[in-house]
């Protein structure tokens, strides 16, 4: 486990806060209660805390099984100086929390991911309510606790922390709703024999088949891809960076050969990290 690497030192962990967020719960599940936690207001702040070595590790949300990738995390990975050294999964059950009753709710606070995961329920039961983005579900609970006629989509934990009533339970659109979180650090993790690696690259968009040529190198070396994403490069219009996750560790021989081959087709290539595979198939 990642925290065993720092057993002789005090371990500190930054996470997207405030207390009670799903990221906080994932961090607790990964590191337990014997480390020092530092809640951060934004995902960017979590990255900065690790990059500037204010904390040993950071925990950020990466993707949800219902609503897909957390684009804020993807965008921050483009400029990150950290390494992804681990992952964690958390089953996410959303609840409608408020100080009042459901009939008086005119505003709902939550993280954009939570709104996306509860879209059907909101459209059915609170279609006229104003949905307002918050930096996290726990921040949403804080806001709902300070205002009348406001509610939050958040966790049961936040109901207890912020003195809110649970108006409706389990309002997510799909059962088995899970979020994957990345553990950030400053030193790469070693191979476990069951790992995944996340790669970032861009290609010459003017060259036909450039992306196809890149992806074919994985097939040539018998490497299974598990996720592909893209985001604007912010370098020029209609230019994109690609995220590719695959089975294997960056130090595996077939992965090294694939990375050497893919370098011939890429304009830029960054290994964001290799980490032990924690996904369990339901």
TrEMBL record:
EC annotation from Swiss-Prot or TrEMBL: 4.2.1.51
Tell me which residues make up the Prephenate dehydratase domain: 12-186
One GO molecular-function entry: prephenate dehydratase activity
GO CC annotations?
Answer: cytoplasm
Which residue numbers delimit the ACT domain? 199-276
Instruction: Offer one Pfam family short name for this entry.
Output: PDT
**Ligase is among the record's keywords:** no
Q: What does the record give as the reaction this protein catalyses? A: prephenate + H(+) = 3-phenylpyruvate + CO2 + H2O
What is a biological process (GO) this protein takes part in?
A: L-phenylalanine biosynthetic process
SUPFAM superfamilies found in the cross-reference section: ACT-like (SSF55021), Periplasmic binding protein-like II (SSF53850)
Name the InterPro entries for this protein: ACT-like_dom_sf, ACT_dom, Chor_mutase/pphenate_deHydtase, Preph_deHydtase
This protein is called prephenate dehydratase
